[in-house]
Write a structure and sequence with these properties.
This protein is of the alpha/beta class. 40% of the residues lie in helices and 13% in strands. The strands form two sheets. The chain has an eight-stranded mixed β-sheet, sandwiched between helices. Helix 14 packs across helix 16 (329-344). The longest helix is centred in the first third of the chain and has 16 residues, at 139-154.
Length: 454
């Protein structure tokens, strides 16, 4: 079931959606760089050398060299970003717009003076208006397409199977997993301290989970976490942000990047989820370039150990729990339901797990630092399993008073719980594993695995 994109049949029009944003990220970033005078000068002096600094596709670079805006837009360019390239060449916005129509500059100006292009006949493909027909193409674009066609006929074109849709079946959420993401756990792994007496009880609690993961390995993990002032400083803090890149490097949080594998994303599913969830009236920030901190990598260590590469793809999903106001539990719970609907509308039979991370009770600041509330934490786990809808109504102040100022991270668990089948009328989940431990550095550690039942 493909996403509803009603704008696909508007003639002569490219809507810049989540897929276009993902595809054109580096092309648009290159264009943004031209806002600096020194970069414009470098580009003018040696276009090829400057373009080589940007991780664009060969086709995107060819489109830039040809100054073919229609071609650049097909490969993910957005007109507001592409205008920086036009400005570098000394073109006005009117000249840029006219260049995409197949008209001469004077013809385009005359049309605009006459009141502009009429929408009559130009609302839907096939109506016969003056915007219908083939897209205006440069000679370079035509030559590129002819070459690609020859390669296709010769059978040498490489296909990315990840882009294929219409596979037999839909994606489905198989389980939700909950775990704390304490940075000290990552340090214990990185420094080889997991066998020390202090750490043995904690890592023992995840032995079952590691075997369970081997037996229930998903294709994709949708991992809900919070950025710890790593990517998002006080200049911009999005409430909800989804990573749509193909890869995510470990972040340097002040001690150097953790020695863990890069995270491989699933950009097509991520863009699909973003498009679907935004259409369900949730405001997401789409992030095409993201480094991931301990909030995401520590749970991966707990479940997979320290492999040379992570065994499945991961979609990072950031929630602001640093700067108030933070999203309510009810909002997070509803968001989880929207994410499940998005995943189940994806046309590929992927097995997807939803992970909620952070918490449990802990406070890292002020004279009350070190607060732990084990009784409250375990009641939270009870309610998360049995009555998540009621748990989602708990106000923020209860988290702060009972679980500490940083215990508010637990609202992220409600996103993962909201994505389970029973919330939408299905069977109650199976509790595959439950674990609780105090302390890991400053924090109580909770862990839960819930399996969806067919």
């Amino acid at each position: 079931m493909a996403l509803h994109k009603p704008y696909l049949d508007v003639p002569g029009t490219t809507i810049f959606d989540a897929d276009q944003s993902r595809k054109g990220y580096w092309l648009n970033q290159f264009c943004m760089s031209l806002m600096k005078a020194e970069n414009r000068e470098r580009f003018k002096q040696d276009e090829d050398a400057y373009l080589a600094e940007w991780d664009m596709t060969d086709e995107q670079r060819a489109a830039v060299r040809a100054r073919d805006l229609n071609w650049m837009m097909r490969t993910g360019g957005n007109i507001y970003f592409l205008s920086k390239l036009g400005a570098t060449d000394g073109m006005s916005f009117q000249q840029m717009a006219g260049s995409m129509t197949g008209m001469t500059e004077q013809q385009y100006r005359d049309m605009m003076v006459g009141g502009g292009r009429s929408p009559e006949g130009n609302r839907v493909v096939g109506q016969g208006g003056d915007a219908q027909g083939a897209v205006s193409q440069s000679a370079a674009w035509k030559a590129w397409e002819e070459k690609q066609q020859k390669n296709l006929v010769a059978g040498v074109e490489k296909h990315d199977t990840a882009t294929k849709s219409g596979a037999n079946g839909q994606a489905r959420v198989t389980a939700s997993l909950f775990a704390s993401h304490v940075p000290a756990i990552g340090a214990a792994v990185d420094l080889g301290k997991t066998d020390e007496p202090y750490w043995v009880p904690l890592f023992k609690g995840f032995e079952f989970s590691k075997q369970w993961m081997k037996d229930n390995l998903p294709d994709v993990i949708f991992l809900v976490y919070n950025d710890h002032a790593t990517n998002f400083d006080l200049g911009i803090i999005p409430t909800f942000a989804i990573g749509t890149a193909a890869e995510f490097e470990p972040a340097d949080e002040g001690y150097g990047p953790r020695p863990v594998p890069k995270v491989v994303g699933h950009p097509h599913l991520a863009a699909h989820i973003a498009q679907s969830v935004i259409q369900q009236d949730f405001d997401l920030t789409i992030v095409n370039n993201l480094k991931v901190d301990h909030g995401l990598t520590v749970p991966l260590n707990l479940m997979f150990g320290s492999p040379a590469e992570w065994p499945c793809k991961v979609i990072p999903f950031h929630v602001n729990v640093v700067q108030y106001p933070v999203p309510s539990g009810a909002r997070c719970f509803a968001l989880g339901q929207a994410i499940r609907r998005a995943i189940e509308s994806y046309d590929e039979p992927l097995k997807v797990q939803i992970w909620g991370t952070g918490g449990m009770s802990h406070q890292l600041q002020g004279p009350r630092a070190g607060l732990i509330n084990s009784e409250w934490d375990n009641q939270f786990l009870d309610r998360l399993i049995a009555d998540p809808k009621d748990l989602a109504t708990m106000p923020h102040i209860d988290y702060v008073r009972e679980a500490g100022s940083e215990g508010i991270e637990l609202v992220m668990w409600l996103i993962a719980r909201g994505a389970m089948a029973d919330v939408a009328g299905g069977k109650a989940p199976k509790v595959a594993h439950r674990f609780f431990h105090v302390p890991a550095s400053n924090t109580a550690v909770g862990h839960l695995i819930l399996e969806n039942q067919e």
